[in-house]
């Protein structure tokens, strides 16, 4: 999802907010609306992200952090390397494509194996690792031993996704 670049410069952003790359926290440098100088900027959006309101428009804190540090509005998406969308430390952020960002997802909530990409095959009564890239599904066999299935998945994920592989 490409978000619209702000109508203000990085210099303007730096004049109203201070960003700590070590903590990922923004603080206000001046009194504005209902906030005081020194207050932490932003509020939780559904408990999943931090939004900061600047000049009557909401921005995602991780995108503002990127803009603040690089001077460039992200072209596509900003990924949280550790998958914690509230952790906006600069060394935890990277500019990625939509496909790269989706590869860094954690296991789904309905996962029963405890591992991303590993499901139980009821017909074979074995664990089955599978992975997808660019619309192609890779079925990696079936295994009686869960650890063996996990290792097969890990190797294929590294082969396909490199630094974006998530287990």
Structure in words:
With 167 residues, this protein is α+β, with helices and mostly antiparallel strands. The chain folds into two domains: 10-100, Alpha-Beta Complex (Homing Intron 3 (I-Ppo) Encoded Endonuclease, Chain A), CATH 3.90.75; 107-164, AP2/ERF domain (GCC-box Binding Domain, 2-Layer Sandwich). 23% of the residues lie in helices and 26% in strands. It contains four helices and ten strands. α1 packs across α2.
Question: Which secondary structure elements does this structure contain, and how are they paired or packed?
Answer:
Elements (H helix, E strand, L loop, with lengths): L9 H7 E3 L6 E3 L14 E3 L3 E6 L2 E4 H10 L6 E4 L12 E4 L1 H6 L14 E4 L4 E8 L2 E4 L6 H16 L6
Helix pairs in contact: 1-2
Quick recap of the structure?
The chain is an alpha+beta fold.
CATH topology call of the largest domain: Homing Intron 3 (I-Ppo) Encoded Endonuclease, Chain A
Q: Assign the CATH class of the largest domain.
A: Alpha Beta
Mean of pLDDT: 88
Across the major sheet, the strand order is: 3-4-5
SSE order in H/E notation? HEEEEEHEEHEEEH
Unreliable parts? none
Cα(first) to Cα(last) distance is: 24 Å
């Amino acid at each position: 999802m490409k978000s619209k670049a702000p109508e203000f410069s990085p210099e303007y952003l730096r004049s109203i907010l201070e960003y700590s790359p070590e903590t990922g926290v923004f603080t206000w440098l001046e009194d504005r609306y209902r906030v005081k100088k020194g207050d932490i900027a932003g509020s939780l959006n559904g408990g999943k992200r931090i939004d900061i309101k600047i000049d009557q428009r909401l921005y995602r804190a991780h995108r503002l952090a990127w803009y603040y540090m690089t001077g460039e509005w992200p072209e596509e998406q900003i990924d949280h390397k550790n998958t914690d969308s509230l952790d906006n430390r600069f060394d935890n952020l990277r500019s990625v494509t939509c496909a790269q960002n989706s590869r860094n997802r954690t296991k789904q909530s309905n996962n029963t194996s405890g591992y991303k990409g590993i499901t139980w095959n009821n017909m074979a009564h074995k664990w089955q690792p599978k992975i997808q890239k660019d619309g192609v599904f890779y079925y990696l066999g079936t295994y009686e031993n869960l650890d063996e299935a996990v290792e097969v998945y890990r190797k294929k994920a590294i082969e396909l996704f490199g630094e974006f592989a998530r287990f």
